[in-house]
Fold:
Amino acid sequence: MSRFLPLIGFVVLVSLFGFGIWWNTQHDQHEIVSPLINKPAPAFSLPVLGEPTQTVDKQSLLGKPYLLNVFGSWCIECVHEHPVLSTDVKALGLPLVGMNYKDDPKDATAWLAEHGNPFNVIMVDRDGRAGIDFGVYGAPETFLIDGKGVIRYKHVGPITPDVVVKEIQPALAALAKEGG
Amino acid sequence: MRQLGLLALLCLLPLLAIAQAIQPLPFRDRAEEVRFQRLSAELRCPMCQNETLADSNAPIAHDLRRQIFEMMQAGKSDAEIKAYLVDRYSDFVLYKPPVEPKTWLLWFGPLAVLVIGGIVVAVQVRRRSRQAPANLAGPANDAEDDW
Structure:
């Protein structure tokens, strides 16, 4: 028996390393699983981009599910994500609420003029405080918030057509099942 | 002349390091600053691979330092500030994760490995010392055969 101990030790180590490699290919080490999922979204009240006298708050968005997309004109990945927001995400038929994160409203307006505006409404989080409440640590990040104001899903990084099909649509289907 | 200009330019390079330095916060006294430094060194920047909030130059680290500073000024305890960040960014922000069933393996795993190793060694030693008297009569390299 003790003759096989080194072999057993070797096999254990190899499987541990193998598991580590497999785990790292399946998971993004950068991504933090949000502790806010299935919890009520934090309260917010933010001015509307271009119309600073108006505000959007959590209450005014209750009633039906919506997607909250955190973006900034400074954000490189947001440029890559933008066409997907305008097509695949728009096709979902959900209101798309933008959170212009840590951006100069002037830059944001110019960016939207250049790339097009897929958002139904855009809130301005100039200093990133609302972002902290949402656990945002970069851009883009996207939240699915249901009609009761509960965060149901979060995606860190740009949304791709694949993410829409494999993650957002199932999350919406789960919501619809609950509602009906 | 051109080389001299280049040299002068190179001498200015260290200034970039100052430009990169983390913005100072208006601390009330030394004790508060020490507390802030200790607290932000125990917290991990969510954006960066493995940097503390104290060290990181990422925008989010800057915002979170400001948040910690404001909470300290508002009289919040270290535990309250940590709980605030964990509520938003999960245990990921803690360099020392809490002891709970989920993290038992992390906290006690190394100890368990040490204990198991110790038991294996003890068993081997005892078995050999029991075999030792018999080996006195036999060939000297018998013990090595075991491995």
